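Hello again, I could really use a second opinion on something today. For a while now I've been wondering how a particular protein folds. Please have a think about how the structure follows from the sequence. Here's the protein in full, and shout if anything looks odd to you:

***
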Amino acid sequence: MTVPDYIARMPRKRLAAAVLIRDDADRVLLLEPSYKPNWELPGGIVEADESPWDAATREVVEELGLELPLGRLLVVDHVHAYDDRPDGINFIFDAGRLDTTPTSFPDGEILSAHFLTLPEVAVRTRPQMTARIAAALEAVAENTTALCNHGVRIA
């Protein structure tokens, strides 16, 4: 087997990167997308030859029109394969606080943005996403990085 053959047979994982943005009451900014029912953190898929931190920064600009300083890594979550999607890794970075709710959405994918408490987040997101956001909030409070397995914190 040649090196290119070996590399071609390596498994591929999808990568996604998001940011945790909070207000002064520690509510979490969630976005209502136009293309699916579940709300999300600002962020998205990491493109080819792009780092997760660059993807997170790019997505915030695309979705909110904001250039925010990216803080430390809060969550690394291994997501199992589901719904014909391969397994993947999700990253959440701290993007600090905003004192106003964004109202402009340049890319047209976002309908609205809202600061929500964790119980309010749970109503609008999948359980795995709610658990991931809870882990991110814990990581902020503990000044650490949370490791998760399909949304469940393991370290």
Remarks:
- The helical segments are 3-8, 52-64, 118-124, 127-142.
- The chain has one domain: 3-153.
